[in-house]
């Protein structure tokens, strides 16, 4: 476990590389690698540019949050996790709905690959319920019977019991997950907006300070930084907001187990 007191708040920011090609992604890494903790590579960019893009971010000194949300049979997910671990990513996502055997297979594959290749073990984060679902679609289409909030908590507990390092969740769910899963479980939240900033397509947002106060360990932030006239100043403002909220949060000891993106 790593002590989180005194942490540099900027290292808690994961910049979403929501761009459509490698050149633009590399430009953001070049501009912000000393200002943020990590870069999120999602389905769009990965599908277009592939593993080479991940290698390129790493070669430029950026850490990688590979957000591919694996959901398949355990053996397939294990093999995909091995490939991701070999790329040297810091974080990787899977769907908690894949179930315990799939989650465990992912956890074990990451650990064994990292040991074999003498790499840092990527942290495995589970996505609980996609925020694009509401109660109606969750029950009527997916067939989950509980309220979305209750499903989120149930799946977070499943992820924890299966050995995952944490979850990705909406800022609104952070406090309940933190309470249910304890201080050693990573909580990563998108949907962060500085007070008064445009929300874009995000509806249920919190400020960075609010997310930290509720127990987030890392914040995924895109447009509030990439759309700012001065992105570095935007990072500094977000980090200052986090720092103001961090005093109570920093008393949570050991919220991050070995995540290299976090440096005291
Ligand atoms: O630009 P913005 O700060 O809204 O970007 C947030 C990032 O987090 C995007 O990459 C988005 O896909 C991702 N995300 C989200 N809400 C979720 C899960 C992921 O906004 N529930």
How would you portray this structure in words?
The protein has 264 residues and is α/β, with parallel strands linked by helices. It has one domain (9-250): TIM Barrel, CATH 3.20.20.70. The chain has eleven helices and eight strands. The protein has an eight-stranded parallel barrel, surrounded by seven helices. Helix 8 (174-181) links the parallel strand 6 (166-168) and strand 7. Helix 4 (74-87) runs parallel beside helix 5, helix 7 packs parallel to helix 8 and helix 9 packs parallel to helix 11 (231-250). The radius of gyration is 17 Å and the shape is globular. Cytidine-5'-monophosphate (C5P) binds at residues 16, 18, 42, 131, 170, 190-191, 200, 202, 220-224.
């Amino acid at each position: 476990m790593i002590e989180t007191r005194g942490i540099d708040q900027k290292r808690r920011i994961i910049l979403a590389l929501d761009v459509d090609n490698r050149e633009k992604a590399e430009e953001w890494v070049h501009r912000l690698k000393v200002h943020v903790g990590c870069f999120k590579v999602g389905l769009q960019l990965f599908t277009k540019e592939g593993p080479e893009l991940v290698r390129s971010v790493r070669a430029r000194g950026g850490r990688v949050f590979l957000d591919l949300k694996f959901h398949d049979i355990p053996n397939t997910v294990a093999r995909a996790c091995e490939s991701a671990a070999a790329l040297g990513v810091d974080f990787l996502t899977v769907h908690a709905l894949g179930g315990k055997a799939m989650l465990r297979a992912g956890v074990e594959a990451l650990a064994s690959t990292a040991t074999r290749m003498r790499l840092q073990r990527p942290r495995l984060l589970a996505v609980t319920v996609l925020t694009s679902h509401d109660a109606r679609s969750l029950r009527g289409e997916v067939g989950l019977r509980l309220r979305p909030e209750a499903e989120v908590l149930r799946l977070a507990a499943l992820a924890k019991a299966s050995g995952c390092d944490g979850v990705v969740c909406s800022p609104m769910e952070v406090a309940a997950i933190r309470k249910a899963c304890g201080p050693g479980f990573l909580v990563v939240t998108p949907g962060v907006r500085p007070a008064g900033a445009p929300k874009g397509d995000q509806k249920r947002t919190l400020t960075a300070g609010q997310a930290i106060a509720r127990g987030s360990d890392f914040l995924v932030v895109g447009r509030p930084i990439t759309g700012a006239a001065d992105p570095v100043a935007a990072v500094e403002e977000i980090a200052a907001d986090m720092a103001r909220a961090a005093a109570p949060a920093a008393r949570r000891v050991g919220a991050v187990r070995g995540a290299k993106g976090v440096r005291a």
